[in-house]
Amino acid sequence: MSRFTKELRVIPEAAWIFAWFAYLCITVWLFFFVAPKDPEMAKLPRWGQALLIYGFMLLEVTWVVLIGYIYGDAKRRQMRYVMWTLLAIFVPHAIGMILYFILRDPLPKTCPSCGHVEKAKFPFCPRCGTLLQPTCPKCDKPLEPTWANCAHCGQQLPGPAPRATQNPSVAT
Ligand SMILES: [Zn+2]
Ligand SMILES: [Zn+2]
């Protein structure tokens, strides 16, 4: 849940405000002005119309908030966020959104030594030269911090090996 609430904070406040404001306008308009004149809707009781309109239009809120998320998330990932937001809005059948979630870059890394935020694909911090992504001493390919052996060439790694033998229940 904490990860979910953390992700929610990526959505700009303006997206929430716009989503609920539009929701209010559309539902009031549909319920008070469209539904009473519509022959199909008139067959339903008034509470049934309300349920249908107010329930269905929650999709509109979800849609706007999702676009807000893509905007905030693409910005955080140092991607072309304007382009991705427009694709999410204008490509039909949510294809722009689906493409975004398939193609989005990994989260940028913060340099532990100078605090500079840089795209994850670079092994060194461009500001201070600190090594951000350790590489294998034998094959030079990027390593994951949990590896005891290089997954590319099998080279045994000195760093994380002692940690791997520790009892996980003791190491909190
Ligand atoms: Zn740095
Ligand atoms: Zn290797």
Account of the 3D structure:
A two-stranded antiparallel sheet has the order 1-2. The chain is mainly alpha-helical and 172 residues long. The protein has helices spanning 2-8, 13-34, 39-42, 46-56, 58-76, 81-90, 95-103, 161-165, and strands at residues 109-110, 117-118. The protein has eight helices and two strands, in the order αααααααββα. α2 (13-34) runs antiparallel to α4, α2 packs antiparallel against α5 (58-76) and α6 packs antiparallel against α7 (95-103). The chain has a domain at 2-76. 51% of the residues lie in helices and 2% in strands. The radius of gyration is 25 Å and the shape is elongated. The longest helix is centred in the first third of the chain and has 22 residues, at 13-34. Bound molecules: zinc ion (2 copies). One zinc ion binds next to loops.
Features:
8 helices; 172 residues; mainly alpha; binds zinc ion
Helices and strands in order:
Blueprint: H1 2-8, H2 13-34, H3 39-42, H4 46-56, H5 58-76, H6 81-90, H7 95-103, E1 109-110, E2 117-118, H8 161-165
Antiparallel strand pairs: 1-2
The chain binds zinc ion (ZN) (2 copies).
**H/E element sequence:** HHHHHHHEEH
Mass-distribution shape: elongated
What distance lies between the first and last C-alpha atoms, to the nearest angstrom? 20 Å
Stretches where pLDDT is under 50 for at least 5 consecutive residues are: 160-172
Could you tell me which ligands this complex binds, including any ions or cofactors? zinc ion
